[in-house]
Each structure stands twice: as structure tokens, then as C-alpha cells.
């Protein structure tokens, strides 16, 4: 009976056990499903949990739930409370959502709650205070919100509390001071506020305190110095302020102190020198002042010292040379100073890997450094200082290492005053990937570049010349190349850029750079290439932005290229590598081959037809060439009539015609002599002009493409000096009328001068309005179409005016200029020939010159004020703001839109003026020497000679439909016209030798017209007072000659031409008033002006500035 009773009892217990086991399995199955485990796997695991992966058991009881990195996407089940013996929950690196169940507080044996790197939300349950055995609470990297529960301060066994990278708010609970066993507390990357509770100083077991990336403010509590076990103190990227407490020096076990990116002020406490075990001291990006304490030299174990981005002054303490284990010394962006010798003395006992002294005021020559100091350097930044001297002497230290350059990865010497040429061995450093030498004074050509690991090469804003080395094509990793604002020329076809990919060597996060992070990734097997760039976590964003090699460089961006404001020319390649190019290459160069640029790698903002050698420029050159062919043809036809008129002009006896013909003959003789002198100059420009290797044909024949080679420069200067002497003699030998000499001594009152000045001002306004074609011509050569002229209609109008301007200038000159000058003479009292010369000066080249100076890219660049790139707020404005991490490469406002300070002294503006105006001047002369005589002859064929009148002084003219068709031969027009031709010879022929041929053709054609009019058509030139007083103006021509001399000097000194000082001395000697005593004036008068004196014995060549006021005119 008793046996049966025991049997029944055992059966009941077995049934109860099986029922409980079945319930537990069902509960576990549902919990696994809620976690996100697949149904089949959940059923198998729930049936035999202790035999399944994911559970740890002790005597058939589940004590551990370990599902790290299972990619679970469910929720934390409340049913876990039934696992009453559970000691550890490890669910990190999953995709769990929802909140943390308060029911977990029923797990009384729980010691480890690890839920990091999930997507948990909601508040941290206050019920967790019931977990009295909890030792580690890890909720890192979730989306938890709300305040940190003060109740966590009752977890007396808690040793590790990781709450970083959430969205927790509120203050740090002071109740944490009760956690006497807590040795690690991480609250970083949360929007916490308030101050650091001073009560935390009671946590004597604390070893690691991390509070970074929060809104914590206020001072650093002095009580933290009571944490005698503290090893790591991380408080960066907060709003901490006030002075650093000197009591921190009592932390004798501290190894790393990170207080960067706060608002700490005052001096660095000298007590920090007492921390003998300190290895890393990071105080950068604060507002610390004063000098660097010499006591820091007592930190014998220090490996990294970062005091960058503060307001420190003074010199680097000599005591720092005692830091023999120091690997990183970062003192950039302060106000430190000292000599290179002092720096070398301090560094002599160190074996640094990182030396960053950029953005300070250090100075001197870098000649005292030793190879032992630099042999382990990986980063050397001496940028933005005042170092000077020959760069080669300093680089020799690295060249002596094996391999060349040693371990150097980055060399930043930009924004200093280094001189000399680029050292060839520098471009052979085997490990170098970042080289910045921009904003120095380096000269010479680029040497062959064999640094195969080079990613960034910044050489802009130097004085480099030559061409791009072919070795650039073999740099497979090169992704950033900046060469703007140098004098490098030739084609750009040898480039092969790839996607820029390199880490930011200055990046530090919790004291770790990209190299240390890479080692950490490899050590823990992390997969950072799965990082989402839009991840809200601040630290991951920083890693993504600064360490692209950790993600395999698949998101590193595009290649950057800047070549503007150089001497690059020739055809533009279709591509520059396999990567997408972000560049600025057209402006300030002569790229192109006479075709449109439709390549995708060129930015639309630069595809402006007049910023490069475009189809319009090519067409303009062809027109000029065709015009010269036509000119030579006409010259052959007109040779005999011109010879006859030359021979007979001294003996003409029909009044003013003799004087006009004689003056024309003087121009013709001058043009012949000038042409002979211009021939060697033209050959020099064509043969040795290499400023642009592939410039338009007309540019090659002008000073715009003049060489900077010694022999070519001396040859040009010699020709210029000869021409200077010729024109000084020619104009000084012009005879003056006695009446004009008497009038030069006439004095006028102040009122008369003011009225005359106002009259001239009104005339300038009138002339400017009538010179609109010339203005539009220059605008068309200096304004980009897409960025400035929005409609295709206006762009077409600009192109039409551009090609028609020379013809329009001649038409306005012939039809309106003389009549308007005569009318204004009657009104103002200013002599008509002076008004007419001013009109022609403005229309011919003065206004185009001024417009070019104002608008052209190489001069004042005023057109950029309306360019979309230079308009703040436009999408294009920020496109050219380029930075390579912390190093600024290109700034839209400073480097593109702001006027270059050297625009007037680097020769670019003078070259642009000569190059842009050459086509206009030559086309105008060709029209005047070919089309105009032909049109005039055809008009005369249909005209009738008017009957002889009683007023012989008005002359006898040909008329067509009542219009005078021979008015252009009047002495008023002829003398001002011939003065303008003299002016072109004196001012422009030294710069554009082809102009002498054009003037020669114009003078010959003008003689032919006189021959036809006087001999064939029997007209009589008017001899009234206005025409009788018209004459060549010696003062006007002397002034034009002086202006041309100044322009030549400006160009010579701006272009650094050899012999420029010879030209200066010669100009001073020849142009001074006393030089006339030594000039061959008698010989010049006999050769150039004898016919003029014979043709008019009582009339002398007079100055056009001060002429007699006509009777009845208004006296100003």
C-alpha cells in the first residue's frame, strides 16, 4: 500500500514537472519568436535550450542568453522574466526595437544586461533598481530618451554603466555617487545638460569616466581629483568653461586626459606636470591662454601632447626636450613664436611621429634639423608660419633617409616664404600621400614626380613655370591637384586623376586617429564598411567623414583639379581619368583650339566662349589674315599712283591740298621706318614668343605672347629702345607755327578753365555714347555668355557687334565724327581738330582698353560681380569652396571673386589688353585701307562735281543726292586722321608690330584717295578758318608717346623681361625735356617735315589743344 502511494505521488510529480516544462518551453518559444528568431529555429531552441546555441545553462537551468549579432529585429520579450535563474542577457549588435521591459527587474540574479547597438527606444525603466546584483549595464548606441533614472544609484554592485550614444536628456544624477564599486561610466553623445555633479568625486573606484559630446556646461569640479583610481578622463566636446583645476595634478594614476573642444580658459595649470603616468594630454580647441608650462617637461611617460586651437603665446619650453617617449606634438593654431633653431634644439632628443606646428608665428631657416629627428615622422605640418629660405636645404634631410622620405606620409609647408626650385628628390618619397607647398615663393619647373602613393598635391600660388611632367600620368592614386596662380604652361593632356581617398591624419576621436581605429577594427573584427552615412550617431559620422579608407574608399568623392590663372594652352582633352572631375581650369589660361568646349568634366560656369580660344576668336583671326592678303593686293595695284603723288606732293599748288598731302607723306615715311624696325620685333615674337604654347595666330605676333627668355627679352627691349628714340626724335622735330608759340604764353582765368573743363566733360560723354560698338566689342571679349547674358538673342547680338565693330567704327568716324566735332566747336570754342582727335582716340582703342582693364579676367574682373558663381546664396557660389579636411584649398570669394592683389604687377593684365585689342585695331586698319577706299571710289563714280562757287574757301566737292562725298578729304578730318595714325604707330607698334603694316597701308590708301580726288576728279579742298588751322598736334602725339612708353615699362616689369631696367634708364634719358639737345632734330626735319615746310611757308604744325576760337563762337 505504501509502495502504491509513493508510485502515485511520483506520477503526479512527473505530470506536474512535464506540464511545467511544457509551459516553460512554450513561454520560451514565444519569447524567441518575439525576439525575431525564425519559427523553426525557435521551436528547436525552445525544445532543447541547453543544447542550442544562444543559451548557457547550469544544471539544466538557463543562466545566460547570448545572441550577439544575430540581426534580430523583434522586441525584448517580457517573458524573459520567467527565466528566473538568468544571470546575463547579451543581445548587443542586433536590430531590436521597442522599449526595455520593466519586467526584467524580476530577474533577481541578473548580473549582466547588455543591450547595446540596437534600436531600442523609450525611457530607461526605473524598475531596474531592483536588480541588486547587476554589475554591468550596457545600453550604448540605442535611441533611448528621457532622463537618466536617479534610481540607478541604488545598484550597489554596479561596476560598468554604458549609456552613451542615445538621446538621453536632463542632468547627470548625483545619486551615482552611491555606486562605490563603479569603475567605468560612459554618458557620451547624449544631449545632457547641467553641470558635472561634484558628488562624483566620491567614486574612488572610478577608473574610466567618459562624458563627451553633450551639452554639459559649467566648470570642471575640483572634486574629481579625489578619484585616485582614475586612469582615463574623457570630457571633450562639451560646453565646459572656466579655468582648469590644478587639483587634477593629484590624479597620479591618470594615463589619458582629454578636455578638448570646450570653452576652458585661463592658463594651463603647472600642477599637471605632477602626473607621472600621463601618456596623453589633449587640451585642443579651447580658449587657454598664457605660455606652455615648462612643468609639462616632467611628464616622462607622455606620448601625445595636443594643445592646438588655443590662444597660447610665447615660446615652446626648452624643458619639453625631456619628453623622450613623445610621439605626437600638436601645437597648431596658436600664437606661439620662436626660431627654427629653438625648435630643432627641442626636438633633437625626440622620435616624433606627428609634429604639427601650423598656424603660428615661427620663423627662420630650417637648416638645423637632423635626420634622427625626422626619420620616424609620419606627419610634419609647419604651414602658416614665417619660415623662409631655400626649400632644397630642408628637404635634403628627408632625402638622406632610406627609403627617400622615410616614413613621411604628409608634408605641409604651405603658407610660408620658402624660395628656390622644387627639389627633385621630394617627388620621389615612396610613402608620401599628402604634399602641400602652396602659397610660397617657389620657382622653376616641376621635376618628374614618382611618389606613387601621392593623393594630394597642392602647389598653387607660387611662381612655378615650365610644363606638366609626363610622370603625372602614372600617379594612379592622385585625386587632388591644385596648380592655380602659377606660370605653368603647355597642354594638360598628361593627367590621369582618380577618386581622392585618404584619411584625415589630424582626426582624433577619444584620442584615437584613423590608424588606431583601423587597428581596433582589425582587432575586434568590426565591419565599418556597413556604416550608414546618415547615421545620427555623432562619432560614426566623424569616422565616416575622416577615415574613408576604413570603408574601402568607395564613398570618397570626386577628383579635384585647379589650373586657372596659369599659362596652359592647346587643345583640351576629352577626359582626365576615369573619375568624375570637379575643377576650375579655363579662366586665366589660353586653352582651346578654336572650337567649342563641350566636354562634361568642365564646369558649365567656365564654358564661356571668350574665356578660352573659342570659335569666335578663331574667326576673328581668319578675318584679319584675309584682310592682310587683300591689303597686299591693293598695295600692288596702287603702287604707281602712290609713287606719282609722292613725287609731286611737294610741288602741289592748290592750297591746303599740298599741306594735307605733305603731312600724309610724313606719316608714310614714318610708317616705312617703323615697319623696318617692326620686322625684327615681329620675328622675335613669332620665333621666341612662348608665353602660351598654342595661342591664336595674332597673339603670337604681339607682346601678349612675348617670351621671358633672356636673349629674346633683350632683343625686344633693344627694338623698343630704338622705336622710342625714333618717335621721340620725330615728334620733337615737328615745326610749330609762330602764332601757336605766341598763344602758348596766353594765360586764362579760373572761370574760363572751369568752363573749358565742363565742355570737355560733356564731349567725353557724347563720344562715349557714340563709341558703343567699341564698348560692346570689349564686353564681348570679357563677359561670359551663360553666366552674364541669359538670353540667346542678346548673346547673338553681342557676337554680331563683335564681328561688325571695326566696320561700325569706320562708318561712324566718316559719317558723324567731323560734323559733330564742327558743331560742338561752334558751341564750345574748343578747336574742331582737337575734338575730332579725341573722338577717334576714344572710339579706336582708349574705351576698349579701359573696358578690358575693368572687365577682363586678368585685370580687375568686374564682370564677376554679376556672375552667378560670385553671388552669395546661389547654388554655384559654394561649389568652389574646397577643403581637404582642415586645409582650405579654394575659397570662392577669396580665390575666384576677389580682385587679385597682383593684377597690375604680374604682366597678365598688360598681355590681356594687347591680345584683346590687337584684333580690333588690325581689323579697323584693314577696313580703312581696303574696304573704305573701294567704297569711296564707287561712291565717287556716281557723284557729280559741284559747280565752282563764289566762296572759294569752302572748296569744290563731289556730291551724291545732295550729300558731300568728299568731305573726308577736308584738312580738318585729314589732319586729325593722320595724327591718329601717328598715335597708333607710337603707342601700339612696339606691342603689335603688324600695326605698322596696317598704318603703312592706310597711309598709302589715303594718298591714293588724294590722288584720285585732286587729279582725276578735280576737287578742291576747303580753306576756311577751321580747315586752315587744322594741323598735326605735336603735344597730343608727345603725350601719346609718353603713355605708350609707360605701358611698355609696365608690361616689361610685370612680365619680368630681361633688360627691363635698360628700358627704364633709356626711357628716362630720352623722354626728359633736356633730351632734345642731343636728338638729331635737324636730320629729322629734313627727312620727315621738309615737304610740309615747303608746302606752307606761313603755316606751321600747331598744337591742337589751344586753338583760336572761331568768330561768333561761345567763349568758355
Automatic annotation (TrEMBL):
Pfam families, A to Z: LRR_1 (PF00560), LRR_14 (PF23598)
Annotated localization: Membrane
This protein's UniProt keywords: ATP-binding, Leucine-rich repeat, Membrane, Nucleotide-binding, Repeat, Signal, Transmembrane, Transmembrane helix
Predominant cellular place of this UniProt entry's protein: membrane
SMART domains given in the database record: LRR_TYP (SM00369)
Keyword NADP: no
Signal peptide location: 1-18
Domain of life: Eukaryota
Residue ranges of the TM segments: 617-639, 673-692, 712-736, 757-776, 796-816, 837-855, 994-1015, 1036-1053, 1059-1079
Sequence ranges assigned to domain Disease resistance R13L4/SHOC-2-like LRR in this UniProt record: 174-291
Membrane topology: Single-pass membrane protein
Protein known as: Disease resistance R13L4/SHOC-2-like LRR domain-containing protein
Amino acid at each position: 500500500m505504501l509502495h502504491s502511494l509513493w508510485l502515485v505521488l511520483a506520477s503526479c510529480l512527473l505530470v506536474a514537472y512535464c506540464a511545467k516544462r511544457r509551459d516553460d518551453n512554450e513561454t520560451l518559444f514565444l519569447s524567441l519568436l518575439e525576439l525575431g528568431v525564425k519559427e523553426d529555429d525557435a521551436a528547436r531552441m525552445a525544445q532543447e535550450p541547453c543544447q542550442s546555441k544562444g543559451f548557457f545553462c547550469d544544471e539544466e537551468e538557463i543562466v545566460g542568453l547570448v545572441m550577439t549579432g544575430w540581426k534580430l529585429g523583434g522586441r525584448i520579450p517580457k517573458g524573459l522574466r520567467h527565466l528566473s535563474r538568468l544571470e546575463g542577457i547579451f543581445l548587443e549588435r542586433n536590430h531590436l526595437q521597442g522599449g526595455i521591459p520593466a519586467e526584467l527587474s524580476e530577474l533577481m540574479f541578473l548580473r549582466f544586461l547588455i543591450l547595446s547597438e540596437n534600436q531600442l527606444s523609450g525611457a530607461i525603466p526605473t524598475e531596474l533598481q531592483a536588480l541588486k546584483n547587476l554589475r554591468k549595464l550596457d545600453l550604448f548606441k540605442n535611441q533611448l530618451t528621457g532622463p537618466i533614472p536617479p534610481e540607478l544609484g541604488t545598484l550597489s554592485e554596479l561596476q560598468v554603466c554604458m549609456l552613451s550614444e542615445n538621446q538621453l536628456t536632463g542632468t547627470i544624477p548625483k545619486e551615482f555617487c552611491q555606486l562605490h564599486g563603479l569603475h567605468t561610466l560612459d554618458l557620451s553623445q547624449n544631449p545632457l545638460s547641467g553641470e558635472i555633479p561634484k558628488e562624483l568625486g566620491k567614486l574612488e573606484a572610478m577608473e574610466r569616466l567618459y562624458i563627451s559630446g553633450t551639452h554639459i556646461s559649467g566648470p570642471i569640479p575640483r572634486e574629481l581629483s579625489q578619484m585616485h583610481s582614475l586612469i582615463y578622463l574623457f570630457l571633450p566636446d562639451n560646453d565646459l568653461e572656466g579655468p582648469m583645476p590644478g587639483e587634477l595634478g593629484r590624479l597620479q594614476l591618470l594615463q589619458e586626459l582629454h578636455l578638448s573642444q570646450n570653452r576652458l580658459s585661463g592658463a594651463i595649470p603647472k600642477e599637471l606636470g605632477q602626473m607621472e603616468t600621463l601618456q596623453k594630454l589633449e587640451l585642443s580647441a579651447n580658449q587657454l591662454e598664457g605660455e606652455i608650462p615648462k612643468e609639462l617637461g616632467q611628464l616622462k611617460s607622455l606620448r601625445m601632447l595636443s594643445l592646438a586651437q588655443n590662444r597660447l603665446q610665447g615660446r615652446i619650453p626648452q624643458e619639453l626636450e625631456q619628453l623622450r617617449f613623445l610621439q605626437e606634438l600638436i601645437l597648431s593654431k596658436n600664437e606661439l613664436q620662436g626660431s627654427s633653431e629653438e625648435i630643432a634644439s627641442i626636438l633633437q632628443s625626440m622620435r616624433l611621429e606627428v609634429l604639427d606646428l601650423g598656424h603660428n608665428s615661427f620663423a627662420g631657416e630650417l637648416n638645423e634639423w637632423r635626420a634622427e629627428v625626422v626619420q620616424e615622422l609620419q606627419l610634419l605640418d609647419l604651414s602658416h608660419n614665417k619660415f623662409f629660405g631655400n626649400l632644397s636645404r630642408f628637404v635634403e634631410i628627408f632625402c638622406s633617409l632610406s627609403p627617400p622620405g622615410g616614413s613621411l606620409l604628409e608634408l605641409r609647408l604651405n603658407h610660408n616664404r620658402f624660395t628656390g626650385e622644387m627639389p627633385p628628390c621630394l617627388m620621389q618619397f615612396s610613402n608620401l600621400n599628402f604634399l602641400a607647398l602652396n602659397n610660397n615663393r617657389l620657382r622653376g619647373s616641376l621635376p618628374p614626380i614618382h611618389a606613387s602613393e601621392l593623393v594630394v598635391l597642392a602647389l598653387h600660388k607660387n611662381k612655378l613655370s615650365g610644363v606638366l611632367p609626363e610622370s603625372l600620368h602614372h600617379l594612379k592614386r592622385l585625386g587632388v591637384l591644385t596648380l592655380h596662380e602659377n606660370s605653368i604652361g603647355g597642354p594638360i593632356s598628361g593627367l590621369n586623376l582618380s577618386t581622392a581617398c585618404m584619411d584625415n591624419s589630424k582626426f582624433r576621436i577619444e584620442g584615437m586617429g584613423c590608424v588606431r581605429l583601423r587597428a581596433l577594427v582589425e582587432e575586434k573584427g568590426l565591419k565599418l564598411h556597413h556604416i550608414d552615412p546618415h547615421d545620427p550617431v555623432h562619432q560614426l559620422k566623424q569616422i565616416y567623414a575622416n577615415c574613408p579608407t576604413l570603408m574601402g574608399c568607395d564613398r570618397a568623392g570626386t577628383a579635384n583639379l585647379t589650373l586657372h590663372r596659369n599659362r596652359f594652352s592647346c587643345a583640351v582633352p576629352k577626359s582626365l581619368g576615369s573619375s568624375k572631375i570637379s575643377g576650375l581650369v579655363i579662366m586665366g589660361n589660353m586653352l582651346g583650339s578654336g572650337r567649342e568646349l563641350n566636354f562634361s568634366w568642365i564646369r558649365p560656369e567656365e564654358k564661356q566662349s571668350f574665356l578660352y580660344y573659342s570659335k569666335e576668336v578663331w574667326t576673328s583671326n581668319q578675318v584679319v589674315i584675309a584682310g592682310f592678303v587683300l591689303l597686299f593686293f591693293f598695295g600692288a595695284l596702287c603702287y604707281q599712283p602712290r609713287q606719282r603723288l609722292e613725287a609731286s606732293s611737294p610741288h602741289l599748288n592748290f592750297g591746303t591740298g599740298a599741306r594735307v598731302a605733305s603731312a600724309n607723306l610724313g606719316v608714310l615715311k614714318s610708317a616705312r621706318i617703323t615697319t623696318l624696325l617692326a620686322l625684327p620685333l615681329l620675328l622675335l615674337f613669332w620665333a621666341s614668343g612662348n608665353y602660351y604654347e598654342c595661342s591664336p595666330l595674332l597673339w603670337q605676333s604681339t607682346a601678349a605672347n612675348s617670351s621671358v627668355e633672356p636673349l629674346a627679352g633683350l632683343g625686344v627691349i633693344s627694338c623698343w629702345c630704338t622705336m622710342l628714340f625714333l618717335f621721340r626724335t620725330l615728334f620733337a622735330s615737328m615745326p610749330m607755327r609762330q602764332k601757336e608759340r605766341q598763344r602758348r604764353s596766353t594765360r586764362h582765368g579760373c572761370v574760363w578753365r572751369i568752363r573749358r573743363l565742363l565742355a570737355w566733360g560733356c564731349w567725353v560723354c557724347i563720344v562715349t555714347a557714340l563709341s558703343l560698338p567699341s564698348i560692346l566689342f570689349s564686353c564681348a571679349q570679357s563677359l561670359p555668355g551663360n553666366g552674364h547674358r541669359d538670353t540667346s538673342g542678346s548673346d547673338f547680338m553681342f557676337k554680331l557687334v563683335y564681328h561688325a565693330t571695326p566696320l561700325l567704327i569706320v562708318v561712324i568716324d566718316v559719317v558723324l565724327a567731323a560734323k559733330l566735332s564742327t558743331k560742338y566747336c561752334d558751341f564750345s570754342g574748343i578747336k574742331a581738330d582737337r575734338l575730332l582727335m579725341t573722338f577717334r582716340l576714344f572710339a579706336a582703342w582708349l574705351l576698349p582698353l579701359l573696358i578690358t582693364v575693368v572687365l577682363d579676367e586678368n585685370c580687375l574682373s568686374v564682370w564677376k560681380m554679376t556672375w552667378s558663381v560670385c553671388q552669395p546664396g546661389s547654388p554655384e557660389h559654394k561649389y568652389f569652396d574646397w577643403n581637404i579636411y582642415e586645409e582650405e584649398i579654394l575659397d570662392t570669394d577669396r580665390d575666384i571673386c576677389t580682385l587679385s592683389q597682383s593684377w597690375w604687377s604680374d604682366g597678365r593684365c598688360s598681355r590681356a589688353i594687347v591680345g584683346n585689342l590687337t584684333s580690333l585695331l588690325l581689323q579697323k586698319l584693314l577696313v580703312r585701307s581696303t574696304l573704305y577706299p573701294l567704297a569711296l571710289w564707287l561712291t565717287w563714280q556716281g557723284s557729280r562735281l559741284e559747280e565752282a562757287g563764289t566762296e572759294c574757301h569752302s572748296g569744290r566737292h563731289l556730291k551724291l543726292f545732295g550729300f558731300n562725298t568728299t568731305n573726308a578729304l577736308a584738312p580738318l578730318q585729314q589732319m586729325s586722321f593722320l595724327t591718329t595714325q601717328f598715335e597708333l604707330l607710337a603707342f601700339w607698334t612696339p606691342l603689335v608690330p603688324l600695326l605698322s603694316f596696317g598704318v603703312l597701308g592706310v597711309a598709302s590708301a589715303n594718298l591714293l584717295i588724294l590722288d584720285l580726288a585732286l587729279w582725276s576728279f578735280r576737287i578742291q579742298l576747303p580753306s576756311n578758318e577751321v580747315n586752315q588751322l587744322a594741323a598735326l598736334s605735336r603735344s597730343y602725339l608727345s603725350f601719346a608717346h609718353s603713355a605708350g612708353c609707360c605701358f611698355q615699362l609696365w608690361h616689361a616689369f610685370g612680365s619680368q623681361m630681361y633688360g627691363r631696367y635698360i628700358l627704364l634708364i633709356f626711357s628716362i634719358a630720352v623722354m626728359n625735356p633736356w633730351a632734345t639737345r642731343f636728338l638729331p632734330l635737324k636730320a629729322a626735319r629734313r627727312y620727315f617735315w621738309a615737304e610740309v615746310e615747303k608746302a606752307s611757308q606761313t603755316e606751321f604744325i600747331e598744337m591742337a589743344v589751344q586753338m583760336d576760337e572761331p568768330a561768333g563762337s561761345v567763349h568758355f
